[in-house]
C-alpha cells in the first residue's frame, strides 16, 4: 500500500514522527469502492475514517420527501468521515456514497482514537484538520446556504472547475437545494448575462 500521498496530506496540517506514521499505517487498509457503492448509510454507526486517493465522494442526507440532499463533495486527497456521528458515537445522519469508482485508505475510528491519545503529534494534526475544515471552511458554507441565492452559489461551484465538471446535474441541483429545471433556468440566465 503506497501511502506517501496520505502521509504528505497529514503533514500539511502537522508533521508526524516516524513512530506515529508507522502506528497509523498499521491500522490502515486500502479499499476500493465502485461507483454508487455506499461507504456509510444514514442510520448506520460510523466506524471508519477515509482518505480519498482517487475518485469522487458525495455526502447527503434525505429530506421529508425522500429526496437526497447533497451537503458536500470530496475530491482526491480529502479526508472523509461522518465526524459528528463518530464523536457522538451515534448513528450517522448522512450517507457517504462513491460518485465515481474510488480508492480510499480506510482506518477504524476506535483504533484511531486510541492513537490520538497515544501520539501528541497525531492529536495536533487532528485538531488542526478539524479547525480548518469543520470550522473555518464550514462556517462560510453554512452562511452561504442560508443567505445566498442558488445562482450565486452555483457561480461559486463553477469556480471549482474540476469538481463542477465531474458532477451530474441532479447532484448540483440537490446541492443547491433546487430542482434540475430551476438549475437549467439559472444556467440559461448566466449564459444570457454573458452575451
From TrEMBL:
Annotated signal sequence range: none
Stretches assigned to the Cyclic nucleotide-binding domain: 12-116
Highest taxon of source: Bacteria
Xref: Pfam families: cNMP_binding
Coiled coil: none
Protein name in UniProt: CRP-like cAMP-binding protein
Lineage, highest ranks first: Bacteria, Pseudomonadati, Bacteroidota, Flavobacteriia, Flavobacteriales
Amino acid at each position: 500500500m503506497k501511502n506517501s500521498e496520505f502521509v504528505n496530506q497529514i503533514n500539511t496540517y502537522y508533521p508526524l514522527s516516524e513512530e506515529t506514521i508507522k502506528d497509523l499505517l498499521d491500522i490502515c487498509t486500502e479499499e476500493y469502492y465502485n461507483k454508487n457503492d455506499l461507504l456509510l448509510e444514514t442510520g448506520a454507526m460510523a466506524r471508519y475514517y477515509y482518505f480519498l486517493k482517487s475518485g469522487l465522494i458525495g455526502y447527503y442526507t434525505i429530506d421529508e420527501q425522500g429526496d437526497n440532499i447533497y451537503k458536500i463533495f470530496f475530491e482526491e486527497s480529502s479526508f472523509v468521515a461522518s465526524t459528528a456521528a463518530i464523536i457522538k458515537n451515534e448513528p450517522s445522519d448522512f450517507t457517504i456514497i462513491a460518485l465515481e469508482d474510488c480508492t480510499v485508505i480506510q482506518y477504524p475510528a476506535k483504533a484511531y482514537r486510541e492513537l490520538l491519545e497515544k501520539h501528541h503529534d497525531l492529536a495536533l494534526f487532528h485538531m488542526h484538520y478539524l479547525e480548518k475544515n469543520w470550522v473555518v471552511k464550514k462556517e462560510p458554507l453554512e452562511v452561504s446556504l442560508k443567505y445566498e441565492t442558488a445562482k450565486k452559489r452555483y457561480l461559486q461551484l463553477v469556480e471549482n472547475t474540476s469538481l463542477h465538471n465531474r458532477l451530474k446535474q441532479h447532484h448540483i441541483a440537490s446541492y443547491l437545494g433546487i430542482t434540475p429545471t430551476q438549475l437549467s433556468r439559472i444556467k440559461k440566465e448566466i449564459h444570457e448575462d454573458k452575451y
